[in-house]
Write a structure and sequence with these properties.
This protein has about 400 residues and is of the alpha/beta class. The chain is about 45% helix and about 15% strand. The strands form 3 sheets. A 5-stranded parallel β-sheet has the order 2-3-4-1-5, sandwiched between helices. Strands 9-10-11-12-13 form a 5-stranded mixed β-sheet. A 3-stranded antiparallel β-sheet has the order 6-8-7, with helices on both faces. The mean pLDDT is about 90.
Length: about 400
């Protein structure tokens, strides 16, 4: 791997959270955000178990949470646990469903500070739509955000007992949701799990519940277009032409932003030194987890019979992995040349070109053109195992895309 990261994995977030909870009171509120079904609740329950007798778990996504004075009752219970001076942890799951949650947590954090209470607060949410905005607006200086992102091949290899390359292949074909692993060999149940436990709650509950969406059907159609065209550059006009329902280009752009905030789809902007050109460019649609590509009844492509579609799936998985790792991505295009992704990670800069199947030096001319124009960026080719020599002979660094996904 040519960059060292990932601070967004389950293991990394768990280690960071445990260390922060050991710090001397009062500690900042720990806010865990991320997509559905990546282990946020599992992590919180693990903390509750380790802090047995000194922790209180509560979910705002229950009928009881809608009752009057529910949260004040929760607070009285955590205060009682902390009365003897020993640290206690309040664990709030799905906090985005709690009305005015950020204002309430702000008031409780200030109370902890004022009274010197040994209470730690951990809150999680399945969407950053209102989580991030609410925290920034109401809890400035009172919280730290931890992002638990989509799982990578290395994580899947551990829980599924797979060899590294098999795990990378599965990440392309079946995505990285740990709860879906048990259904991999049952296509019908696997697709139903992705549809009913991930896509529908993320769109039907998270986005539509937390954001005012005037045309819910249009939002779903924009998502469907993205999953049908992974790692493709589509103008907003082209997207509009693929929709069954009419929508203004500004609305389509806004819905793409909502899908990004929900960790579902990221519309990459064109790499340019001009902010105006970046914003006016046609987006490149990256689906954040390849499991979502089966939305709408899509089938997994066969590398032999559908090489082009297979290549798109591999490229999407690679670019999604970089986005999920927290890297800053753009695409570059200057007719007739194009580079799959321009990546920034701190002071490090890369240009990634993903190739599957047989390719030649001629297929790398776009990367070569961009490398001459942007000498500060390392050009790297991600290809099938055993095909690195073609890129290396052309003067480029090369790596197997399976290794990259790990």
């Amino acid at each position: 791997m040519f960059y060292k990261i990932n601070k967004h994995t389950f293991q990394s977030v768990r280690a960071t959270l445990k260390e922060r909870l050991k710090e001397k009171s009062p500690t900042l509120i720990q806010l865990i955000v991320g997509p559905r079904q990546v282990g946020k609740t599992t992590l919180i329950l693990e903390i509750a178990s380790e802090w047995a007798g000194r922790s209180l778990y509560a979910s705002a996504d229950t009928p009881e949470a809608a009752l009057p004075n529910w949260r004040e009752g929760i607070w009285r219970r955590i205060e009682a646990l902390a009365r003897n001076g020993a640290p206690a942890v309040l664990l709030l799951d799905e906090v985005q469903y709690l009305p005015d949650w950020s204002l309430w947590l702000k008031a409780k954090y200030d109370e902890i500070q004022r009274l010197g209470l040994p209470i730690r607060i951990v809150a999680s949410g399945s969407s950053s739509l209102q989580i991030g905005a609410g925290a920034r607006e109401s809890m400035a200086g009172r919280f730290e955000k931890l992002t638990l992102s989509h799982w990578g091949a290395g994580d899947l290899a551990k829980i599924a007992g797979l060899a590294p390359q098999e795990a990378a292949h599965r990440l392309v074909t079946h995505g990285g949701y740990p709860g879906a692993v048990v259904f991999w060999n049952d296509p019908a149940r696997w697709k139903a799990y992705v549809r009913d436990s991930i896509i529908e709650p993320a769109i039907g509950r998270d986005i539509l519940h937390l954001e005012k969406v005037r045309k819910p059907a249009l939002l779903r159609q924009v998502f469907a277009v993205a999953t049908a065209h992974p790692s493709e550059i589509l103008s907003l006009e082209k997207i509009a032409g693929l929709l069954a329902e009419k929508g203004a280009l500004e609305t389509i752009s806004h819905y793409l932003d909502l899908l990004h905030e929900a960790f579902l789809v990221t519309p990459l902007q064109k790499f340019s030194n001009s902010e105006i050109r970046r914003r006016r460019s046609s987006p490149k649609l990256i689906v954040r987890n390849n499991a979502l590509l089966v939305a709408g009844g899509k089938t997994i492509p066969d590398p032999e019979t559908e090489p082009d579609r297979w290549g798109r799936w591999v490229e999407n998985a690679c670019l999604a992995r970089a986005i999920n790792d927290g890297l800053d991505l753009h695409f570059w295009r200057e007719e007739p040349w194009e580079v799959d992704s321009v990546v920034t990670h701190g002071a490090e800069r890369y240009m990634l070109e993903v190739k599957t199947g047989r390719y030649s030096a001629e297929d790398l001319r776009g990367l070569g053109h961009a490398a001459q124009k942007f000498p500060d960026y390392r050009p790297i080719v991600l290809c099938d195992p055993g095909c690195e020599r073609v890129a290396e002979a052309a003067g480029f660094e090369a790596s197997c895309w399976m290794d990259f996904l790990q």
